[in-house]
Every structure is written in structure tokens, then in C-alpha cells.
Amino acid sequence: MGTLARDDIRPRRRRQRARRRTVPAGVLVLALAAAACTGQNGDEDPPSTPTPQPTAQPPTGTPETPDAPAVSPFTGEEGKPHGVLAVKLGNTPSARPHTGLRAADLVYVEKVEGGLSRLMAVYASRTPDRVGPVRSARESDLELLRQFGHPAFAYSGVRSALKDDLRKSPVRRVPAGESPNAYTRSSGRAVPDNLYVRPKAALRTAEDPSRPRDIGFRFGPAPDGGTKDGSHTVRYPAARFGFTWSAEQERWLVSMDGAPARGTDGDRLGAPTVVVQYVTMRPSRFRDVAGAVTPYIESVGSGRAKVLRDGRAYDVRWKRPSAADGTAFTLPGGARMPFDRGQVWIVYAER
């Protein structure tokens, strides 16, 4: 499937909200007809349920029954998921606007050398024609990607000292230098911001990439509490991300370095849920060509986080016991923090 249509976000999200609030009358009619045929007062699935009661969908990314449509553990939306593809993206001003970012299930924001930023976009529901610009991998990407099992990983290169670590990791490598058929160059941009990956070709190139699995997210109605918050900003030494709530579009609109963030199609970037996760960023064993130390983002451990949804900010705790585990976000008292359904941005901020 190609990129999303320009004006599909608001109508689609309102239809989803309507489906969560209502139970179709046809469901109750079928239930009564089944009861008349079987002598029971409820559905035949499961037989032990005496009376059908309309219930809200639980705050999880897992379908309730084997016959239910697949529900993404990344977005909480119904669909037909494919293998997981992670793409490392540049995010300097010359790398913008991005292509294919609106189709991602998840977008991770990372600090890199010199206080700049890069993005990790994860795809498992939609496959745009191309995604980019693609840039090089970092050491802490391996820790981040372990939670997905063995996802396909598209990147443009890596330091020689890190190549063995990548080969030994569970990720299914799809580097540009070894997978030329999965990449294309844009004549309208200069190197290095002109490299793009073709997601369908990258998934064909990868060896049996993982299917989506539980990475700790839960989805459902907004909980009580939180603080009204119409905008939030995360700053790195040389980069800045702003998130402004749009009640009309029911999502947080993204700004980068003070300018509205848009895709190459002109559409504004934004997501219904934004997570600001405070982590340790220590020096890694690598430096860039100018001698600047590459930060290592410790996504394993625990700490505080802020979840933005529905125009409110919720102070939560995060915990990820190991690299193979997902990250649980919990409210005060221990209940899991439900995200709104749709794309999720996770912004790593220094604690």
C-alpha cells in the first residue's frame, strides 16, 4: 500500500473513536437469533457466556478472539501487519522534509553527535513506496531494536568497529552497500541526504523478519488525571522538537527546530500519542569524523516519562528489564498507561 491520502487522518480517527463508543445493532440481532436456535441466552462463542453484554475494547494491542481482525501491538489499530522494518533517518535541516514518515507505526527520536538528532521509523502496517533519507546506524540502535525480535533494519552504513556487532545481533541487516536493489537515489538532493529505501524490496531482501509482537504498549480510553498541556518541547544541544495539540485533528502536531514538520507531500507530521522518555545518555566508544563522541542511549532500565495524549500530559514511570523486553509505562499506583490508537512518537530525553 502506498502513502496515506492527504486528508484521511481526521475522518479515519473519528470513525475509529465512533467504533469504540458504539456496538452495531446487527451484533445484538445476531446474538438474539443465535440464542433462539441454541436455547441459550447468549452467543455461541464462548458457549459459557449466558448473556451478551456490550463491552469496551480492552486497553491492549492483542485481539480478543482468534477470529477477530489483527490489532497492531504498535498502534492499537486493526489491519494486516507485515514483517517489521526499521529505517534509520537523517534529521538535519538538509534532510527535511522526510518521505514516508507519516506511514510509520512508531517514530523514535534520538540524540546523536554534536547534540543533533536522528529518527528511527518502524513500519509494520503500511508500506510506502519509499522512505528516507536513510542514514547510518549507531551502537545503541541494537539495544533499541532487540525488543522487536529480528526486524529488518535499513541503514546507509556503519563504523567498521560496529560491523561485527551488527552481524552478531538478531536484526536482519539491509544495508545500502549490500542491498542495492532496495535503495534509490534522488537527483533533487545532495549526498548524503539523497538515499531512500524501498520498504517492500527491503522486506523481500531480509531473511524472515519478525512479525509485530507485544513491546509493552497498551491502548484504550484516556485515564483520569493528567495535566492540561497544549504544547510540549524537548531540546537537545543542537535540535529542538515541539508538539502542539490540535483538537480539530486529534493529534499532536510536530515541529522541528521551530518550524512545522512536514512530509515531502506537504502534509504536517503529527501523532495522537507522544512519549517523552527520560533516559541515561552516556558516551559510547565511538566518535564522528570531527572527534565528537557518539551518545549511547540506554533504553534498558527504568525511570520517569511523560505521555502526551488528548491535550493532556501524564507523568508515568517506564521499565524495560532487558533488551529483549518491551517497555511498560505505568501510572502512579501501578496501572498501565493506555495510549491513544495510531502512530506513536517516542522521544528520548536526557534525564
From TrEMBL:
Record keywords, A-Z: Signal
Pfam families (UniProt xref): DUF3048, DUF3048_C
SUPFAM superfamilies registered for this protein in UniProt: YerB-like
Annotated Basic and acidic residues bias: 1-10
Domain DUF3048: 80-207, 233-346
Cleavable signal peptide: 1-36
Compositionally biased intervals (Pro residues): 47-61
Basic residues biased stretches: 11-22
Domain of life: Bacteria
Span list, region Disordered: 1-25, 37-82
Name this polypeptide is given: DUF3048 domain-containing protein
